Each structure stands twice: as structure tokens, then as C-alpha cells.
Amino acid sequence: MKNNTYDAIIMGGGHNGLVTAAYLAKAGKKVLVLERRDMLGGAAATEEIWPGFQINTGAPDVGLLRPEIVAELGLRQYGLEFIESPVTAFAPQPSGPALTLWRDPRETKAEIARFSPADAEKFPAFVRLVTALTSILNQIMTTTPPNLEESKAGDLIAWAKLGLKLKGLGQKEMMEFMRVLPMTTQEFLDEWFESEALKGLLGAAGISGIMQGPQSAGTAFVMLYHYLGTADGGFKATRAVRGGTGQLAAALASAAQRYGAEIRTGAEVSQILLEENPATGAIYAAGVALASGETVQARAVISNADPRRTLFGLVGASNLEPHFVRRIRNIRYRGCMAKVNLALSGMPEFSSLTPPYAPPDSGGGLGGYLGGHIIISPSLEYLERAYDHAKYGRFSEQPYLDVVIPTVLDPSLAPAGQHVMSITMQYAPYNLRGSRGAGEQGKGRLEGWKVGGWDDEQRQALADKIIDTLAQYAPNLKDLIRHCQVITPLDWEQEYGLTEGNTFHGEMSLDQLLFMRPVPGYGQYRTPVERLYLCGAGTHPGGGVTGAPGYNAAREILGDLKR
Prior knowledge:
This protein is of the alpha/beta class. It folds into three domains: 3-40 and 62-77 and 245-332 and 499-561, FAD/NAD(P)-binding domain (3-Layer(bba) Sandwich); 100-226, no CATH class; 240-244 and 333-496, no CATH class. Helix content is 33%, strand content 18%. The longest helix is centred in the N-terminal third of the chain and has 24 residues, at 117-140. It starts with a strand and ends with a helix.
């Protein structure tokens, strides 16, 4: 039995956990990272699912990653390299031409004019407004929320400064910021545009990862969140990593280790060790017990897992106050995203484009159209109907799809001449009701199925629905499929440790954000258990590959360790 003592133990080697580890180690703390899986990255990993094919099993890109983290940790010196497509979004339509948004705003304006000259004229002003509104969100991202239940002057100073900056936008912009946040995506975009294709493409970000439709209140905020760092073309920020998203975790791990952090994979934590302070009677985290039987002591224990998994699974509800238990139990997760990863023998041919596909660096070429996100969301009405199915426990008959073909920009991810495709789909509810019959197409394609709330028949039906939907726009797709991996919300939970399959560690709704994330009174990365902290997406500011929760948590923890 080993008995090591560290300044900080971090449970979970996802990107937020690694950010926290790197900053704590950089500050001279003795840090240990424990990751249950055999690889780092969590839901932002790159895995060789089939020989020669490197798959971004979770996050497809890192467009929201905080630039200060990249700069302060010197991640580029550890091989982190970003690549961008001239096209940010390519949106095929059920009939007629596709709508394409480019990084070049002039090309985007000309493209939109094909659908609506009036919308094309309004679009630059829309981008300016979104940029102004997200500039405030951008500063909020790395500011610790105040504890309004125990208001302290010091906690409110930073937010008072943000209030002054908001006022500095001008009275009109300040009022617009306050007005837009609770709006529906439908209401917000209807005020600006008439083209259903444009609204469907832009508004898809408003329902990303949440069990709500574009007609739900607060989805305008979700849309703005995903538009942080938006590209000049007006679509949400997109940026891939050469070698796959998992190279971000590799660079963060290298930085942390350079500063002295120890990282162990295949090390599952089974329990957070608790002790009682004899002076106050309060319990505190003293270390962790591993599934192997090993125990490790630490001055601080930090969890990159979601709040419910941390506090119920590793601490135990019996060790927490009843009112706090109720709050944690009431966090809404409601995972609704599924993913299909494909190994392809060639490039899919979209009906709205004419092959052959030239590579994006060949001076234009049609291949450049497919280097960004391929969005199947022809209208906001389409998204709302897709949500209707999920409300009643069924996956969408006409699903929203967010597709990337990373090998267009980085051919090293697949054997020569072949490609990988990742398709993120909504809506696929975690609590699936009833059984679905599998179609004839695609039988036998799925590999490594698990039996659970989603049975084999339902998995096959889901994969068929996703592939059939995309094949309506790319007719040769089915002939190219060599391998297929399906990830349901149940898989997100069982394999990646995400409660109810929610990749954001809890819904990104207005009542679960800012000082209310994860629950009111505990928005400062601390928990009722002394010396136990949270650093994952279940804390402020929320999900996505931002690194901000880990960045903020490290700052708070370092302040406590100095006391």
C-alpha cells in the first residue's frame, strides 16, 4: 500500500482537469492527475478505433479554447497546431443550392445574397452586434461568479467592473444584451432575417447539447455562447487541431509534466477519503482511494467529473446536508446528443457540389467546401420538429446533424485516399422509450455494442436514421462506409463518465449558469466538503472545449492553498 501525499489530486484527465493541473504545477504545487481510462482527453480525445483511422470520438474541434491558456502554458511548443478551413459552414438544402459561410465576410455576403439580398445587406450589422454581445460573455468566461447567498464586497468587485464595461458598450448595446439573453433563438433571428436556410444554419448553435428547441426561452444565450470568438464569416468559431482534438490533451499533459505534475492513466478513483476536523466538526477531503486499493493523500482534491457523479458517487449523499443533496439531485442533465463516426473508403459526393473534390489548399477547389462544419438544419422549423420527437422519448425522425470530415484538412488521420467522418446528431434522448425496428440498410455495420437502456436494435435504428438522413444530401455515402461506431447518450455515461450522457456536465440553460452553476451558493468551484473542488464543465462558465472552468478553478484553489 502506497501512502503518498500531494498538494493536489485531480480526478479526471479531460482537458479541464489537465488545465487545472498545469496551472497548479506551474505555481510550484505537487500535483497528481488520475485518469480512469487508458488515455487522456475525456470527451475531447482522439482514438484509433480502427487500424489507421484516428477518430475524434468526442469534440470535433477547439474553436472555443481560451487563447490565454494556449499562450500562458506555451502549448504550441508541445506540438499543438491549429488548422482552419476557408469555409466555416456548408449547409446543403433539401432542394436547390447549399448555403456556405466563409471566413472571408465578402464571400459570405455574396453567398447569402443568393438566398436573400435583404439578409445579405443586414448580415454585417448582425455580425457586429453578435461580436459586441459576446465581448461581455468573453470576459465573464474567466471571472469567478459571486456567491450571492453570502455576499462579500470582494466577490462583487470583479463583476462590478464587468458591469461598467457593459455600460461602456453604450446604452443601446447594453439594453440589447439584457434583452437578447432570455429570448428564443427563433425570436432573435426572426428580427434579423427572412431566409429559412440562413436562420436554420445560424440557429443550430442555440440548441447545441440541450434538450430544448429553438422556440425555447434562453436559447438565444446558448447561441451567443457558441458564437464566442466567432469567425469573420459569422458562424460559430471553428478550429481543428492537427493530429486530432486529442493533441490538445497531449500538449496540456506535456506542459503539466514539465512543471512537475505526475499523470497516471488506468487509475480509477473509487472513493474520496473524508476526515472530520475536530475543532469545527466539518468534514474535509483528505485524499482518494483507488479501485486498486491504493490510497493517496492530498491537501486538496479536485474533480473534473460532473457534480452529481462527484458528490453522490465519490463522496456519498449521506455525507452531505439534505438541502444541498436536493439541489444536486435537481440539476438537469438530459443528454440528447448521439454521434456516429465513420471510416470511409473515399470522399462523399454532395449533390449540391460537383466532384472531383480538390484539396482546400489548391487555390479554391470544391474540397474546400467540406473542410468546415457540414450542417443539416434547413430551417428553425426543422429543428423544432426534431425536438418534438425527443420530448416524447423518441429520437428525431429528421435529425439535426453537425458533420465534419477532418481528413479534408489533415489527411494523416486516415490511410492514403481514405477519410474519417464524425456526425453529431440531435435529438437522441438519454431516456429512450420503446423499441425501434432496425432498417435493412447498415445491418452488421455497428461494432462493439453495449446492452443497456439503448439495446442493439435501437442502436442500429439510430445509426440507420443518421446515415440515411445524410445520404439524402450525399448519395454515395453508404457505398463508402468501411466501419461505423455509434455513441449514444448511454455510451457517454458508461464509457466517458458523463451523467445521463450530457457532454456539458449539465444543461446550459439560464437557470443553470453563472452563480447558479452547478447550484446556487457553490458557483466558486468549492463544495460543502472542505478542500474538495470541482473544475469540470459542470462549473462556470459551462461546456465546450474552452478550458475556462479548469483555468478559473486553478486560480481559486491556489488562493486557498496560500492560506
